[in-house]
Amino acid sequence: MVILTDVLGVLLDVHLLLVIVASAIYGLVLGAIPGLTALMATALLVPVVMFMEPVPAIAAIITSSAMAIFAGDIPGALMRMPGTPASAAYTDDAYSLTRDGKAGLSLGAGLFSSVLGGLLSALVLTLAAPNLAELALQFSSVEYFWLTVLGLSCATFVGGSSLLKGVAALLFGLGLSTIGMDPVSGTPRFTFGVTNLLGGLGLIPLLIGVFAISELLRTVTLPATGERQARPAVGSISAGMGRLMWHHRFEVLRGSTLGTLVGALPGAGADIAAWIAYAVTRRSQKGKDPNAVEQKVQRIVSAGAANNASLGGAYIPATVFGIPGDAITAIVISVMFLKGLNPGPTIFLNNPTAIYSIFAIFFVANILMIPLGILCIRTFGLILKVPRTYLTPIILLFCIVGAFSVENTLFAVGIIAIVGLLGYFMEANDIPMAPAVLGLILGPVIEQTFMTSMLKSGGEVSVFFDRPLAIALAVATLGSWALAGVLKLVDAAKARPVLT
Amino acid sequence: MKVQDVLVGLFFIVIGILMIGHAAELKPPRHLKFGPGFFPLLIGSGLIIVGGVIALLGLRSLRTEPLWHRPEWSRTRQGWVRFCSIPAAIALYVLIVDAAGFLLTAVLVMVLVLAVSGVPLRRSVPAGAVTAVVLTAIFASVLHVPLPWGPLQNISGWLLW
Asked: Any transmembrane segments, and where (chain A) (predicted)?
């Protein structure tokens, strides 16, 4: 009860509410501009939130990412250009409804399913996280080691089309994480006498480089889109939506459940969640006309709920274990560490007001999505008027100042260029970025837990299989490797041409 | 630029070899079996193995695939100029910001990137100036980031509050 009143006190703070509204508008605008992703919006926000108190800082990220993911639906439905990859799964369905004069239905279904998906995943987060944290309190360095390896394994297996390239990317990220002082003995590694490298590569400049600069490199090389498209009339967005959501309650529930589960899986984000929910719903429509309005709305509702629900799901491993569920929560975890709000099971004991306030912000942000989302749809024409030519250098300057503001060195600014180029070439060669980034963030955790366990046991590897919890996690980890290998072999066998 | 998987594999092998080479120089502290080189040694070994498998699998399509595939944008000079404008603008910033100050450098960066997109100076300079002033207000005044002022130190009071 005391916590509830404390959380209410935090939520009613005018400063926090202003931060939530401002970051909501920021997220909606960036998400609605095709090519600018929720991830990029988050990466660009980090230098600003670094100067805020912990709770408003995380609130800004939660709100802007949720809004950006929904806003990606708007250009998808109105122009057949998904604003973010998370909306790509159902862009064709949404656009075809718009062409039939049902833009209001298409956007309304996307908006309200996003809100419901976000609220349901927030509920799961609030109920599941504290219970999982109690279990996590029994973890020693051995269990943390296995859990981190399990998280990284999942991130690698679901991260891209090539398993080998995913593993290589993960190892590359882990390798980058070893630059700087060794966490156990303090010996400098791979610093080559450069003082700026003693503290490591600097996570925020790396994230800005990987997610923002590499995206800018892709954007500037894209051909001009040509004439501005006419914006179709939208009509009423909210009329009859309560009835529509009730009618499609199973799709909302299915999308939200899938989204929360996929989000909680390290490495899989909103886009994968949306694709899976879309595919599952499509499969459930066997024997029905896939082009009927009813079926299209079902798919939009399910995938729309899933992509927003994945956000809440991703915060479960992030807050309970300190293991990011996707790239956005990877950024959140780094911000939490930098702000002294260390994620992990002890946060529920040491800082309950802060963590429950963060959970409560999910509810506030998702409810706020209804009026602001409708406003964003109505003013979409204005957002489209922002010329892309001018946006590129402005974002570039934000990246430069952002990297400098966190590290206060020009070395960090140089890093964003190098890492941006590296990210661009990795992406061009189908080497997934998510395992590399998670490897970079979790590298020190794995090394520290591994070395601590080995030192405690005097070098006995059996320490990793001594406790029942450790054995369970080890079996899960090794099982996930075996499963990934078997699935790969099955895929290869299916792809092999049949000899007649 | 997409390269053949043999080259991708070789890239990871080289990184792995370099890691192992450096890790071998890191000696463990006294009385400890595992030192700062142990973890990089494991990662380096993993990179060599995985890189090796990627390269080996890439060999199967070496005859049918070119060693590298140039993206569409790289076929024109304009494409290269656009691509290089981003790292060049960052390099320009790093090189001159201490001497020229943030305001002037930010305008130059904006003008450079906009010029590549064909925006005339009469538009790019005012756009750069407005962006530079807004960024200064946000980062220097509100967030107290120590942005350098260069020759404009005397007018810093106008924008700091």
From this structure: 7-26, 58-78, 107-132, 144-177, 197-217, 258-280, 314-338, 354-377, 389-404, 410-426, 433-450, 470-490
Residue A230 lies in a domain: no
B69 in A contact zone (CB under 8 Å):
no
Q: Does a structural domain hold residue A227?
A: no
The answer to whether B33 contacts chain A (CB < 8 Å) is yes
Domain ranges of chain B: 2-69, 76-159
| A77-126 pLDDT tens trace | 887 777 777 777 788 888 888 888 888 888 899 889 999 999 999 999 88
B148 touches A: beta carbon within 8 Å: no
- pLDDT tens by residue, B64-113: 888 888 888 888 898 899 999 999 999 999 999 999 999 999 999 999 99
Is A400 in contact with B33 (Cβ distance < 8 A)? no
Chain B positions touching A396 (Cβ under 8 A) are 86, 89-90, 109, 113
Q: What residues of B are in contact with residue A429 (Cβ under 8 Å)? A: 2-3, 8
Residues in A 435-454 with any Cβ partner in B closer than 8 A = 447, 450-451, 454
Query: Which residues of chain A does B58 touch, with a Cβ-Cβ cutoff of 8 Å?
Result: none
The per-residue pLDDT for range A152-206, each reduced to its tens digit, is: 887 777 666 688 898 999 999 999 999 998 877 788 898 888 888 888 888 778 8
Q: Is A194 exposed, middle or buried (0-12, 13-18, 19+ CB in 10 A)?
A: exposed
Domain of residue A290 covers 2-222+237-495
Asked if B8 reaches chain A (Cβ–Cβ under 8 Å), the answer is yes
C-beta atoms of B110 and A393 within 8 A? yes
Q: Give the best residue of A392, A421, A450 to mutate against chain B (max B CB count within 10 A).
A: A392
| Residue A105, domain member (yes or no) | yes
Residue A500 domain-assigned? Answer: no
Contact with chain B for residue A190, Cβ under 8 A: yes
> ipTM of the predicted structure?
0.92
Number of domains within chain A: 1
